[in-house]
Amino acid sequence: MREVVIVEAVRTPVGKRNGGLAGVHPADLSALVLQALVERTGIDPVIIDDVVWGCVSQVGDQSSNIGRYSVLAAGWPDSVPGTTVNRACGSSQQALDFAVHAVMSGQQDIVVAGGVEVMSRVPLGSARTSGQPYGPKALARYEGFSFNQGISAEKIAQKWGLSRTRLDEFSALSHERAAAALDRGAFDAQIVPVVTEHGTVSVDEGVRRGTTAEKLAGLKTAFAEDGVIHAGNSSQISDGAAALLVTTPDTARELGLTPLVRYRAGVVAGADPVLMLTGPIPATDRVLRKAGVALQDVGVFEVNEAFASVPLAWLAETGADPERLNPLGGAIALGHPLGGSGAVLLTRMIHHMRDNGLRFGLQTMCEGGGTANATLLELAV
């Protein structure tokens, strides 16, 4: 098997619902990060073997293979193909895995992985406007559970004894860390500004400065009257896209490119679909064992903040250093553009590793239906 490296990683700002990116078509938003890849690397896109693109709500503006239409919107040659992947919130992280598998096996040499979601234009749940995706047998197997992620987040909080105060404190910290990252320019090099008819969007829009647990305590719970999950300790509905260029060290050298990170290992794990969002726990253990890397040797963990109970349960089970968990803030503050989130988190983590000389970074993403991806990257030096 060949070694695989990532030589560039870029993203758009993450826009808030009905914010600065809401008027941009998903294919056009995707095109911006695709164009940025070739501008930053200087490669001719004709040599790209494939584009693997994550997207969750594949209806309306995001239907009919958004991956292929993103390539066309970018102005790349007709010969460059594209495909679209849906593994729920982990779609673009899975896109990276598929790209890596193609390059690692020798079937392809240069692949772009990434994803997009413009939830302002294609709202969450748009694909379920008719029909029942779970089917009677799956519902019967789990005693009619509705497979509602918010209820699952409540169940996780109950199982791990996570109080509302604890969840709200974590959420406030997410905003605090994200604001600090913005202020020191931690995201500047990775972001592709988006020019719209209303102006240029160059900064993540979701951060609420001055958020405190005390302020969050006043919000009404969303899924249970006596529950702990509410809008303030949940991920934001967002718009965004990101892309990564995947190849081998030899091909990078031939093209005059310097690898950012090596892909050390990637896994996908299944877990209880009723708790649903606990998959990152076994996925983390599995990816570390596969790579032969100890937990304490990982310098940064990106655990998607779908709900505050998810990374906190992960933290309790793994015993990881909380200072290394989502050090730049997470989806509670920065947003969660579903199919683009895996690539957005990967981009943030890669640049954080480079900026701080961290050898290993681990990203994991909970997903609807009770699965999770985990990816371990190593700094290329």
Structure characterization notes:
With 381 residues, the chain is an alpha+beta fold. 34% of the residues lie in helices and 19% in strands. Strands 1, 2, 3, 4, 5, 8, 9, 10, 11 and 12 form a 10-stranded mixed β-sheet that branches. Helix 2 links the parallel strand 3 and strand 4. Helix 3 crosses helix 12. It is globular, with a radius of gyration of 19 Å. The model has no long low-confidence stretch (mean pLDDT 97).
Number of helices: 12
Separation of the first and last Cα atoms: 21 Å
What is the tally of beta strands?
12
Kindly name the structural category.
alpha+beta
Q: Give the C-alpha Rg.
A: 19 Å
What order do the helices and strands follow? Answer: EEHEHEHEHHHEEHEHEHEHHHEE
Mean pLDDT: 97
Low-confidence stretches: none
Query: How large is the share of residues in beta strands?
Result: 15-25%
Percent in helix: 25-40%
Salient structural properties:
12 helices, transferase, EC 2.3.1.-, 381 residues, 19% strand, alpha+beta, 34% helix, 12 strands
Question: What does the secondary structure layout of this molecule look like, with pairings?
Answer:
Elements: E1 5-11, E2 15-16, H1 26-41, E3 50-54, H2 66-73, E4 83-85, H3 91-105, E5 111-118, H4 135-141, H5 149-159, H6 164-183, E6 194-196, E7 199-201, H7 213-216, E8 238-247, H8 249-254, E9 261-270, H9 280-291, E10 300-303, H10 309-318, H11 331-334, H12 341-356, E11 360-367, E12 371-379
Parallel strand pairs: 3-4, 3-5, 10-11
Antiparallel strand pairs: 1-8, 1-9, 2-8, 5-8, 6-7, 9-12, 11-12
